[in-house]
Specification:
The structure holds 2 protein chains of 2 kinds. Chain A is of the alpha/beta class. Chain A has 24 helices and 12 strands. In chain A, the strands form 3 sheets. In chain A, strands 8-9-10-5-11-12 form a 6-stranded mixed sheet, with helices on both faces. In chain A, helix 1 packs antiparallel against helix 6 and helix 12 packs antiparallel against helix 13. At the A-B interface, helix 5, helix 11 and helix 13 of A face helix 5, helix 10 and helix 12 of B.
């Protein structure tokens, strides 16, 4: 059965078990626990969208839970609006709040994002107190109890909560299989690589944040009606809300549909039953249980129960070592003597400094359609900085980069990628928890399209580099050559017209260099222009049509490989003045016809 | 408003801020060396308040001395907690990917400490009857609450002692080396794990002592941790995550902001001023007012 079908079947299974429990249980207290399990699972899934898939840990997600609860209850109390509509109004307000909070906050990375989110529920809590909403009771409407979500039948609330859980599961499943889902996981695993593959990280995070705010708000609204009856700032914006959310996710496992469901199914009944039996005598028992659970899970299974169980079932997917079918090793015909097409990329006077170190100063060169341009230079010459300027990671202080005549300086990396400039990295930047195929799919989504189309493009790209056999392996299990080929495939899947390859031959064996070189020629043969950085000249001389030499951020020389490698200035840059002086005579002899 | 009234608010804010500063440098030390945001910092502060309280009740120890006497036991407690829990899980890696086990572990620890204290000691607030808590020094037109003044001076002295330890001793140099580059420090024969434990112990001890000083004028209850941990986060971010002088100044700023907010907003909204300052600093200068090391964006 395919992974996808299993996902939907799993959701159906969760709902079936939920329904069954709802109909089997008879005691009101048991229904309360069931409602809580569903609600916290849904809340956990909501948090999981932004913090699990996208890895942006939100410590303030109760902000949306509380907004949902307060909006719904205040609309009912003040305007007599039915909570059936009010809760969607609450979800709307929460989405709006997410967009407002996210806009400044997603400029922050890592722990700074988490700390900033912490502040919002604290502020909301104080403001609610101040506005006189310390206790807002749900208005009793005796004549239309159903219209105001006031059920006699305890089963009603767990069915309502189950419906929310089902909807959140479906939402999460849809995200997982979509372009957004791949983009979010790529952002979590390696944001820079994601940007270079055309992922608009900011928009993706905002979308995920907004999508995760809505179910959180609905959970808050239902919680208010099913459990609280009187909404207080502490009950909906308080620490316990985020603690329960974190506990169900972290115990169950983040970044998956099933983690929050498993976590809620275990943790909520345990804490409720303890609270119900000894809570009177030991008032903090719930907090102790949650805290101890967090500590225990971090010490013994920090990835969460779901991932731990899955790993045990499928022990470290043994590499299907059928070896890479290397691309044709025979050297392809030499390119037609250096007559290339129009100027594709025009670099003019580009300068970039870091804290006084001039990494690039007034570098200019052209890249012509169909050529392989090598950029060489000793370590620290500014080669990678140049690529970072070209693909939009860095903004140059001076100069301009034109792509087919249009200025692209200042475009963000994802936009540069979508224009048709792909890149790879000096140290391969892969998404470690995505298979080789999924890594490539992230690139294949650069221009949108359906998941099926992206999967097809990814398959083609993997076939082009001869890596089909390893498509289902995780990157940490691949060899250096395979990683470099996978990164190339990922880059090709973005359908580039120009590729920037940052030391694609580094760390490869002699055979590996042969294979990679052949692959690069083939990429060019397919009509893609290539710019390669290397600091070892030897390998590059064989594949490049033309070389640009950088030294200390300046363009030192430019021309055909054979000329450039004999240029005394170039030799000096690599080997120093003294070497040059000592070998000058020999060199001069060498140059004589 | 008279200038003297404004001066009174400033002085009051600074006095309170001194104790915030002491709490915050403990948190900053732990973050600086271990790269871990310790969510349980407020709980150790709360335990420090209780220990000072019991010193006063059982042995009639003056809370100012009691606060100092919390240092050794909490240093040992910190070592123990580090060895038992934190050292056994991963953490402190890339500061941009802080979703690590140590962070969550300290969050769990915080929940356990607050709630277990509630269970064992009851949520009832207690207080120490320090004779100087209700007296004030008159300096010109200004009134300086005596308890807060003593606490401020002690906080200043302890912060100076930490600074001297870090800059003047071999242990301090080893701590800073372990903070700057754990791998290179390891090659120089510094046991990074021991340094982490030491930093954690020192950080906990400092915050416990700050708790003791706070106890001279603040009610002692299990829930006190939640309110103060947020203030510490704010102070530490304000000063630049991991910077100890930064955290100290950050603490003073928080005291000032709290005090001056009262001029503009009603008492209930006092902390809104603090949180808004926090967000503004994060958004405008995420590396903090003084930080340069931790990269935020």
């Amino acid at each position: 059965m395919s992974e996808r079908a299993r996902g939907w079947l799993g959701i159906a299974g969760v709902l079936a078990v939920g329904l069954l429990l709802s109909f089997v249980l008879t005691e009101r207290y048991h229904h309360r626990i069931l409602t809580l399990v569903f609600l916290w699972a849904a809340m956990g899934l909501a948090w999981n969208i932004i913090s699990g898939y996208a890895g942006q840990i939100s410590f303030g997600h109760q902000a949306f839970f509380g907004i949902g609860a307060y909006t719904t209850v205040l609309l009912a109390a003040k305007l007599k609006l039915t909570p059936w509509l009010g809760m969607f109004a609450g979800a709307g307000v929460a989405v709006l709040a997410a967009l407002l909070i996210g806009t400044p906050t997603f400029r922050l990375a890592g722990i700074y994002f988490g700390l900033a989110t912490l502040a919002y529920p604290l502020i909301f809590r104080i403001v609610m107190d101040y506005l006189g909403f310390q206790e807002v009771a749900i208005p009793m409407v005796r004549d239309h109890p159903i219209l105001f979500m006031q059920f006699e039948e305890p089963r009603s609330f767990d069915l309502l909560a189950l419906a929310l859980l089902g909807a959140t599961l479906v939402l999460s499943r849809l995200i997982e299989g979509s372009r957004l889902g791949y983009s979010l996981r790529a952002i979590k695993e390696n944001e820079q690589a994601a940007l270079a593959m055309g992922v608009d990280a900011f928009r993706c995070k905002m979308a995920a944040y907004a999508l995760s705010a809505a179910p959180a708000a609905l959970a808050g609204a239902i919680y208010a009606h099913a459990i609280l009856f009187v909404v207080t700032p502490e009950a909906v914006f308080g620490v316990l809300v985020i603690v329960q959310t974190l506990v169900v996710c972290l115990v169950g496992g983040v970044g998956t549909l099933w983690g929050p469901v498993i976590g809620a199914a275990i943790m909520i009944p345990v804490s409720e039953i303890l609270d119900g039996t000894v809570g009177d005598r030991l008032p903090g028992i719930q907090g102790v249980v949650y805290g101890a659970a967090l500590m225990a899970i971090m010490m013994f299974a920090p990835e969460g129960l779901f991932w731990r169980l899955r790993r045990r079932r499928a022990p470290a997917a043994v590499a299907t070592a059928t070896g890479t079918a290397p691309a044709d090793r025979e050297r392809e015909a030499a390119p037609p003597a250096a007559v290339f097409g129009a100027v594709l990329l025009d670099v003019r006077g580009v300068s970039k400094a870091f804290l006084g170190l001039q990494a690039l100063s007034e570098v200019s060169f052209d890249v012509r359609q169909g050529e392989i341009l090598g950029i060489i230079g000793p370590n620290g010459a500014g080669k990678t900085t140049l690529f970072n300027v070209l693909n939009g990671f860095l903004l140059p202080e001076g100069g301009q980069v034109r792509w087919e005549g249009d200025p692209i300086t200042g475009l963000p990396p994802h936009a540069v990628c979508r224009r048709g400039i792909g890149r790879t990295f000096q140290v391969v930047r892969f998404f470690p928890h995505l298979t080789a195929r999924e890594n490539v799919i992230v690139g294949a989504f650069a221009h949108g399209g359906t998941p099926a189309a992206a999967a097809a493009r990814a398959r083609d790209a993997l076939a082009r580099v001869g890596l089909e056999a390893r498509a289902d392996s995780l990157p940490p299990g691949l060899t250096t050559l395979e990683l470099r080929l996978m990164e190339l495939a990922r880059c090709l899947a973005t359908r580039p017209r120009l590729v920037l390859l940052d030391e694609p031959l580094a760390g490869l064996s002699t055979d590996g260099i042969e294979i990679m070189s052949a692959m690069i020629r083939r990429v060019r043969a397919d009509g893609i222009t290539v710019v390669i950085i290397e600091h070892t000249v030897q390998a590059l001389v064989k594949i490049a049509d033309r070389l640009v030499v950088l030294d200390h951020g300046r363009r030192l020389a430019e021309g055909a490989p054979s000329d450039v490698t004999r240029d005394p200035a170039v030799i000096e840059a690599y080997l120093g003045k003294r070497w040059l002086a000592r070998h000058a005579a020999a060199h001069a002899a060498d140059l004589r016809p | 408003m008279h200038a003297s009234e404004l001066a009174q608010y400033v002085v009051t804010g600074l006095l309170v801020g001194g104790v915030y500063a002491l709490m915050s440098i403990g948190l900053a030390l732990i973050f600086g060396v271990m790269r871990v945001v310790n969510f349980a910092q407020g709980d150790f502060m709360m335990l420090g308040m209780y220990l000072t309280y019991y010193y006063a009740i059982a042995f009639h120890v003056d809370p100012l001395l009691g606060a100092l006497l919390t240092l050794p036991p909490f240093f040992l407690l910190g070592l123990l907690v580090h060895r038992t829990f934190l050292a056994r899980v991963t953490g402190g890696g890339d500061p941009n990917r802080e979703m690590d086990a140590q962070l969550i572990l300290t969050l769990g620890l915080s929940l356990v400490i607050t709630n277990a204290t509630t269970m064992i000691l009851s949520p009832m607030p207690r207080g120490i009857n320090a004779p100087y808590a209700t007296k004030a020094f008159a300096v010109g037109p200004l009134l300086l609450n005596q308890a807060r003044s003593y606490a401020f001076l002690m906080a200043l002295a302890l912060a100076a002692a930490l600074y001297a330890l870090l800059t003047r001793t071999d242990l301090g140099r080893a701590l800073r080396a372990a903070a700057d580059d754990p791998e290179a420090a390891g090659y120089q024969g510094i046991d990074v794990r021991v340094m982490h434990g030491t930093a954690f112990g020192l950080g906990i001890a400092l915050v416990a002592a700050a708790g003791g000083l706070l106890a001279t004028y603040h009610p002692i209850e299990p829930n006190v941790a939640v309110n103060f941990i947020v203030l510490m986060f704010v102070a530490v971010v304000l000063g630049g995550l991991g910077s100890i002088p930064g955290a100290f100044v950050g603490g003073l700023v928080i005291g000032l902001v709290q005090s001056l907010t009262l001029l503009l907003l009603p008492l209930q909204l006092q902390n809104v001023g603090v949180f808004v300052t926090f967000l503004l600093v994060l958004y405008v200068r995420p590396q903090g007012l003084f930080g340069r090391r931790a990269r935020a964006v």
